[in-house]
Specification:
- There is one protein chain.
- With 270 residues, this protein is of the alpha/beta class.
- It is built from six helices and 13 strands.
- Strand 2, helix 2 and strand 3 form a beta-alpha-beta unit.
- The longest helix has 17 residues.
- Bound molecules: fe (ii) ion (FE2) (2 copies).
Length: 270
């Protein structure tokens, strides 16, 4: 029985994606050769465009926004190998999309539609708007949004009778439903993130419980049965003179040296 092998990423927030963590996923993909690639949303992050000032973006010149879009396009190209590729728009993708629609002249042409601008169909990506999710492959649902309280995996478990892998909250969490019948139970999983949290404008330096990571999924699309393996990516601790990001998957450790900028930011923080 053929099993679909998938890599699931989320919350890259390009151009603020964590290049070292992303490189680790790239190397895992090169070894695993997945059939399926799924981005659970917040692929991009246009600075100043978030909930706090939705519709009133920070004034920026055109060139950096074009660069931000190119960063998203480059990301999609980096994930071109799997046969099936899916991108679920996240809230940050949606803010950007809405803002482009309301400011079409701003980019100097009529390419207001974000997915058209990114040529997602030419690039072979299925795209699902944030409000149309979740999508389902086998018995596993995928979506971007979720509650953001401390025990969000429990909330996601309670709101549906199906198993779900989701993004948005940026930490790694799971929860199983409580039922008398063991055949009716389901699981919810939060996927982790792949961004540089120290560059996120809306955090204003607040501490978080975010964790770098991605998931490997195995799905029997005939029976619906699946397994989700969350893979945590551990950042270096400059205080302990470590300079490598690492993740262990399938008996192998993947390591990537941190950039100078990353190390000097955290060293300066002490
Ligand atoms: Fe996010
Ligand atoms: Fe989000």
């Amino acid at each position: 029985m053929a099993i679909t092998v998938g890599i699931v990423e989320s919350d890259t927030h390009c151009p603020y994606h964590c290049v070292e963590a992303v490189e680790i996923v790239t190397r895992v993909m090169a070894d695993l050769k997945p059939d399926l690639y799924l981005h659970l949303g917040d692929l991009g992050h246009i600075a100043g465009l978030h909930k706090a000032n939705r519709g009133r973006p920070t004034k920026r010149s055109q060139a950096p926004v074009i660069k931000d879009i190119e960063s998203m396009a480059g990301y999609l190209d980096m994930r071109s190998a799997p046969k099936r590729k899916v991108w679920l728009l996240g809230n940050h993708d949606s803010y950007f999309s809405k803002w482009l629609w309301s400011n079409p002249e701003w980019m100097g042409d009529d390419m207001a539609d974000l997915t058209k601008r990114l040529q997602t169909s030419r690039r072979g990506f299925e795209v699902y708007p944030v409000n149309m999710q979740p999508i389902k492959i086998g018995s596993l649902r995928f979506k971007h949004m979720s509650p953001t309280n401390m025990y969000h995996a429990r909330k996601v478990c309670d709101e549906s009778n199906e198993s779900t892998l989701y993004g948005h909250v940026h930490d790694i969490q799971s929860f199983t439903s409580k039922k008398h019948d063991p055949h009716q139970r389901h699981i919810s999983y939060c996927n982790g993130h792949l961004s540089y949290e120290h560059l996120m404008d809306y955090l204003d330096g607040r501490p978080t419980n975010w964790y770098l990571g991605f998931s490997v999924v195995y799905i029997n699309e005939k029976t619906g049965r699946f397994n989700v393996l969350p893979v945590a990516i551990v950042p270096p601790n400059p205080g302990k003179r470590q300079s490598y990001f690492s993740a262990i998957f399938n008996g192998k450790e993947y390591t990537v040296k941190a950039t100078k900028q990353y190390m000097s930011f955290w060293r300066a923080r002490g």
